[in-house]
Specification:
Length: about 240
């Protein structure tokens, strides 16, 4: 599989791991609560480790120029293949300005969450939902480099007379299980007095098939959680 799969790891996970995945990602640099720059910047990393910047600590009064210098120092020193800007908080003026500045100035490949335009840079999309085909989900981003989050987690889809309610599903231990090859997922149906609930999820085999399709659709690389995806390696994940 030519698509490059990164597994995001904390510093503790990298230190304690018996073996590392083929492609790791550093999780993560944060906005410093004590300065106008970043914290948790690594001194060294395994070869070809992707660098991640997130907003677990919200941006507030941080300097784009300083952040750029700090990121480029790590990227060059550790020979990282690129930067993933994984912003989860709602965009604000400061985060929008930083995203635009990094997109224009950073001397490395970069992708960012879909709420940010970041002209000329990649977009980092959440996992393909279990109720949508990959081609339909990705077509909005045609012409832009796509980095995709991968996960085994699915959805509980509760259908009532008032509509559909979607919640996260992490279970896979249902009694009667069906498979949907087009959506690359498994599901179970629960009938309730006033609702029908579809419990959906992806197995490792489903995920591998989804990534084959995603690669054909132009996805360049993926990022998932080491703690979720490396515990039992399959053909889709090789150390």
């Amino acid at each position: 599989m030519a698509i490059r799969q990164y597994l995001a790891m904390t510093a503790a996970e990298m230190t304690q791991a018996g073996s590392l995945p083929r492609h790791a990602a550093w999780m993560a640099c944060h906005f410093s609560p004590y300065s106008t720059g970043l914290t948790n910047l690594p001194e060294r990393l395994p070869p070809e480790t992707l660098l991640i910047l997130n907003d677990r600590t919200p941006i507030h009064g941080h300097e784009p120029q300083r952040i750029l210098r700090e990121l480029e120092t790590v990227l060059h020193r550790c020979r990282c293949p690129g930067l993933l800007v994984d912003f989860q908080n709602p965009p604000c003026q400061e985060s929008l300005e930083l995203a635009d500045y990094l997109a224009r100035q950073l001397d490395a490949p970069m992708a960012i969450s879909p709420e940010y335009s970041a002209e000329g840079r990649g977009v980092f999309l959440p996992p393909v939902p279990t109720d949508r085909k990959a081609a339909d989900y990705l077509k909005k981003w045609a012409g832009r480099e796509i980095w995709l989050e991968e996960a085994l987690e699915g959805q509980n889809i509760t259908l009532t007379g008032q509509g559909a309610l979607f919640t996260a599903n992490r279970r896979q231990d249902f009694d009667l299980v069906h498979a949907d090859g087009g959506l690359h997922c498994h599901y179970s149906i629960e009938e309730q007095p006033e609702a029908v609930v579809f419990h959906t999820w992806r197995t490792r085999e489903d995920l591998a098939q989804l990534l084959e399709e995603a690669e054909a659709l132009g996805v360049k690389q993926t990022v998932g959680l080491y703690q979720e995806l490396f515990s039992a390696p399959s053909p889709a994940f090789s150390p």
